[in-house]
Amino acid sequence: MWKPEHRKAACRKGLRYDSDMTDAEWALIERLIPASKRGGRKRDVNVREVLNAIFYVLWTGCQWKALPKDLPPKSTVHWYLMLWNWDGTLERIHHALYVAVREQEGREASPTAAIIDSQSAKGAPKGGLLSIRKASTRARRSRGASAISSSIRSACY
């Protein structure tokens, strides 16, 4: 139920876009962003703006090429999104925010119970990453199938 304190907490007034992070949100996330690599060129992109651009695409559902010009270029934003997905940064950000919200609500950081209905269980992907890899590899022909077909061929001649 929406109460006045909930509406006040969800208010996004004063931000450039509704999807932009507040200073308090950025304070939670900033430490989870990996530093730039040593030995290379210094990072010249504002990482907070990259996250704001990612959130803008997620919030509005717009195409990458429709990003506003005051956000970093779409290629830069997309590259960081793929990098952070690959190295686990997005998962760490999600977990930190999840824990913070639960603690803010006066709950334990991790839930102690879960309810799963049969429809959710049926629709869930089975097997995790290993099954994805198996599904994307090319199917092999079994030895039994090739033996049967060769015996049929020899019997027909």
Task: Give a written overview of the molecule.
The chain is mainly alpha-helical and 157 residues long. It is built from eight helices and no strands. Helix 3 crosses helix 4. The termini are far apart. 7% of the residues are buried.
Shape: globular
Low-pLDDT sequence parts = 148-154
Radius of gyration: 25 Å
The first-to-last residue Cα distance is: 78 Å
Average per-residue pLDDT, rounded, comes to 78
Which range does the strand content fall in? under 5%
Order of helices and strands: HHHHHHHH
Helix content: 40-55%
Largest sheet: none
Oligomer: single chain
Number of helices: 8
DSSP summary, beta strand count? 0
Structural category is mainly alpha
How would you sum up this structure in a few lines?
The protein has 157 residues and is mainly α. Helices cover 55% and strands 0% of the residues.
What distinguishing features does this structure have?
157 residues; mainly alpha; 8 helices; 55% helix; globular
